[in-house]
Amino acid sequence: MLSALSNDVLEYIDNIIVILNQNGEAEYVNAAAKKILGFHPKELLGNAWWTKIRAGINNPYTLKKEFLQQLKLSEKTNNSFERKMTDSNGKTRYILWNVVKNEQNKFIGIGQDITKQKEMELKTIKQQREILDSIEYARNLQEAILPDLSVLNNVLYDYFIFYKPKDILSGDFYWAYRKENTLYVAAIDCTGHGVPGAMMSVLANSILREVIIKKGFDDLQTVFAELDKELIYALSKQSTRSVKNDGMDLGLLKLDFDTFKAEYIGANRPLLKISNTNQLQEYKGSPYPIGFFYGFI
Fold it and tell me: Is 97 left (phi over 0), alpha (psi -120 to 50) or beta?
């Protein structure tokens, strides 16, 4: 089958070399099989090629049949694929195979051990999945801070909310609070995107609740000042890093249903009003955000 010279050369190759006949039986396996799989080449001849290194496969002969059928139907002269194999110690090895068909209709396979690379790849995939799962869970927590829409539904009959974060997590959120016949509605854009932005949004939500709900401030100028003070304090305490650009843009609208008056205050956010005659009017807010701002440092 192989000349003495060819056999000697193949025995010194680091990759596994296997020759299968048309029935899928191994006629030759080189010495690399011992190094990579732990089996002596003679132990893998015949159908042992399918049974000894396919632990966990219910019917290795079905696998052999499918493998041969796939190669016979393939129009490629060189077929490449990965296979999981089991070494003599029961451990999984990942082998990258290149299989060609020679003139005698036999299949010559060259197998490269890629176990280390594959394990690193699988480890990376696992880590990425764990990170993504954590981010998805964090999104659920972040969405929990959004207001119950019944707060708006009970007093507004014609409104909409466009909320579409750029990433899974976001520094943008909306906020609403009703106190008797007064409704506060806010749109907030915190510094950053993703995880940093989401953490800022949780902090911003907490400060809004502290200033408007817990402390009960209702004058918007006072609310604005208190939000700025509380956010700067929260970001600066016990912090050794630069926070000169940490803050939030805010649009806060106060609707009084007793007097039917509306008040607005904006931090780097305008208010757009569309009249019944479809006239657009812009109310500019402060050009500065709430919190740290480079121009003030």
Answer: beta
* Residue 140 tokens, joined: 């659920």
Q: How far apart are CA 96 and CA 15, in angstroms?
A: 10
**pLDDT reported for residue 2:** 55
Backbone phi, then psi, for 152, in 5-degree steps? -85, -40
- By the 10 Å C-beta count (0-12 exposed, 13-18 middle, 19+ buried), 79 is classed as middle
What per-residue confidence (pLDDT) applies to 142?
Answer: 87
How many other β-carbons are positioned within 10 Å of the β-carbon of residue 75? 4
- Are 98 and 78 in contact by the 8 Å Cβ rule? The answer is yes
The pLDDT tens digits of the residues spanning 67-124 come to 888 777 766 667 888 989 999 999 999 999 999 888 888 899 999 999 999 999 999 9
Two tokens, residue 145: 């801070």
Between 57 and 81, residue with greater pLDDT: 81
Amino acid letter, 206: S
Q: Which domains does the chain have, with CATH numbers?
A: 4-113 (3.30.450.20), 145-296 (3.60.40.10)
Strands (E), the chain: 16-20, 26-29, 78-86, 92-101, 107-113, 172-179, 182-190, 247-256, 261-267, 271-274, 280-283, 290-291
**Which structure tokens are listed for 276?**
């019944």
